[in-house]
Design goal:
The protein is built from 19 helices and 30 strands. By secondary structure, it is α/β, with parallel strands linked by helices. Helix 4 runs parallel beside helix 11, helix 7 packs across helix 8 and helix 13 crosses helix 14. It is globular, with a radius of gyration of 24 Å. Bound molecules: adenosine-5'-triphosphate (ATP) and magnesium ion (MG). Keywords: Acetylation, ATP-binding, Ligase, Magnesium, Metal-binding, Nucleotide-binding.
Length: 657
Amino acid sequence: MTEQSPALDNLLTESRTFPPSDEFAGQANAKADLYATADADREQFWAGQAERLSWDTKWSQVLDWTNAPFAKWFVGGKLNVAYNCVDRHVESGHGDQVAIHWVGEPGDTRDITYSQLKDEVSRAANALSSLGVVAGDVVAIQLQMVPEAIFAMLACARIGALHSVVFGGFSPTALRARVDDAAAKIVITSDGQYRRGKAAPMKANVDEALQGAETVQKVIVVRRTGSDLEGETPWTEGRDLWWHELVDGQSAEHKPEAFDSEHPLFILYTSGTTGKPKGILHTSGGYLTQTAYTHNVVFDHKPGEDVYWCTADIGWITGHSYIVYGPLANRVTQVVYEGTPNTPHEGRHWEIVQKYKVSIYYTAPTLIRTFMKWGEDIPAKYDLSSLRVLGSVGEPINPEAWIWYREKIGANQTPIVDTWWQTETGAIMISPLPGVTAAKPGSAQRALPGISAKVVDDTGAEVPHGGGGYLVLDKPWPSMLRGVWGDEERFRDTYWSRFSEQGYYFAGDGAKYDEDGDIWLLGRVDDVMNVSGHRISTTEVESALVSHPTVAEAAVVGATDPTTGQGIVAFVILRGNAVDGGDDAVQELRNHVAKEIGPIAKPRQIMVVAELPKTRSGKIMRRLLRDVAENRQIGDVTTLADSSVMDLISSGLNSGK
Ligand code: ATP
Ligand code: MG
C-alpha cells in the first residue's frame, strides 16, 4: 500500500435519505445552528453545557490539556453527581414524578418516584458509610437489572466511592479478576436472578469468586429470587449482609458532599471484543456534562413528557451513561426491564412500550436483527404509536436493519439516531441530530456539536470525501477516559501512540467518508480483510448479505488464502430461523454480494449457522470465527454470552454442513 492510498476500499453505496418532518424539526431541542455555535468557541460551548448541572463551586478553567493525554475539565469546579441526578429534581418540585418504571421478568413491577429514589439512595449511602466506605474506595457491583443496582451506583457517587459494575452473567473468574484489579472493598450482589423464566443462583458464583480475596471486607446481598427461604443461599457470617437488613433501617437523610470535578466516578471494563478487557476510568464533572448534553440533544428528551427506555444492561457503558447518569441528570421517566426480550414471549418489548407509552427507545443492532428474524407480525400486534425517536448503539447498523427498524417499529416516520461511541469516550460522539439531520441508513454521519472526529490514512492525513481509513478524535472532549486503571502504559499505547505526532485519539475502528463528508463506521481495524490487495470492511460485506431477503444476520471474516492473501468467509443466520442452506441458496447469496458490492467482495465460502458468537453486550466476536475459518484452536471465550455456540459452529463445519 502506498502512503497516500486510503486504508480501506470504499465499496458499498447507500443513497436513501430520511430528513426529519417539519413538525419534528420545529419542536426539536437541537437546531442546526448548534454546530456553528460550538465551532465558534468550543470551550465556551462546553461551559454552556456544564450549566445544565448544579455546581457547588464553579470551575475556574474549562479545559486543562497541558498534561495530555490526561485531560482536566471544569478545573476547580465541585459538584455531587448523585445530587444532580436525584435531589435537585425533588427540590425543584418534581418529587412525585416517576423516575423508574421497573419491570421484573416474572411480571412484578415497581414505580419509583424521584422522592423515593432520593430516600433509597440516601439510605444506601448511609449504609455504605456505616461499613467504613469512604471517598476513593472501590465498590464492585454484580447485579442484574434490579432497582438496587441503580441505588447502589448512585450511593457510591454520593459518597465519592468508585463503582466497578460487573455484568450479572459473568463467571466467578471474570468477577474475581475485576475485584482484584481494583482492590474492591465491598461487593454488592443478589441471591439469584431470573433468566428466561427460571431463577438462577448468583450468590454462589460470587462466593466462589471471592475465595481468598483479601481486599473484600463485606458482601451485600439483595434478595431477589428468595433462594434463602429454601436454604439455598450460601452465607459467610461476619462478611455477608442482606441489603434489606442493612439498608432499610438507615436514615433517609444524607447530606451530599461536593467533590472535585475530576474526582473519579467509576471504573468499567470494555466488552473484550478485540482482546483482554481494559478497565476504563471516568471522572465526574465532564462525564456528567457530556452524558446529560447528549441525552438531551440526541434523543430530543423532554423531561416530564417523554418515557424513555434504553435496553442496555447496567454492566455496560451504555447502561452507565444512558440509564443512570445522563437520563437521571435530565429528570427522565424511564423503563428499566429486568429480563430477556423473549420471556415469556417474543413481543415482550412491544408489550412494555405499549403499556408505558414509551416515546424514546434505544437498543442495539443485534437485537434489531433478532426482531427481524422473529418476524414483523410480532411488533405489528402492539400499539407502538407513542414512539417518536429510535436509537441504535454498539455496532454498525446494517442499512436493511435500519430500514426495518424505521418501518416496522417507527411507523415509517420516527427519526433514527445511530450513535457511535465507546466505553472510552464515555458518551455519544458521532450521531445524527434527530431534528436536523437527513438520516442515512447505516451512517452515524457527523460528530456532535462540540466534538471533533476525522477519518485519516496511515500517515494521519485526513482522507478525501469518498475515501476510507481510521477513525480518530482530534480534540479532547469532556467525558473522555482519564486512563486505564493501574496501567498508564496501556493507556498511552492503545489510544495515543498510533498518531502520537498529531496527538489524535485512535479509536481502533475503520471508517469512511461518503461524498457529502458523512462518516460511515466500517468495523474494527483488526477485522479489516485484505483480498488481493483490496482492504475490505467486514461491515460492508455483512450489510450486503443482510440486504438479501433471506438473511437475518451475517458475520464475515478474512481467512488466510494461498492465492488472494485472505479469502472472505461468511457465517449467516437465515430469517425465520430457516436452515435450508442448500448449494443453490449459498450460490445466490454469493452472487448477491457480487452484485451489491463487486466481484472482489464475493465470499469464498458461506456457512449457514443457527447462532453467532457474541459478547454479552451483543457484539459479534469475529476473532473467534476467524479461528474457525482457519482451523485454529479457538481463543479466549470468557466474555461470550454463550460459549457453547462455538462448539455448535465448529461441529457443524466439521460434519461438512
Ligand atoms: P474491547 O475494546 O475490549 O474490544 P469493545 O470495543 O467491544 O471492547 P465497547 O467500548 O463497549 O467495547 O464498544 C465500543 C465499540 O463498539 C466501538 O469501538 C465500535 O467498534 C462499536 N460501536 C459502538 N457503536 C457503534 C455504532 N453506532 N456504529 C458502529 N460501531 C459502533
Ligand atoms: Mg474497544
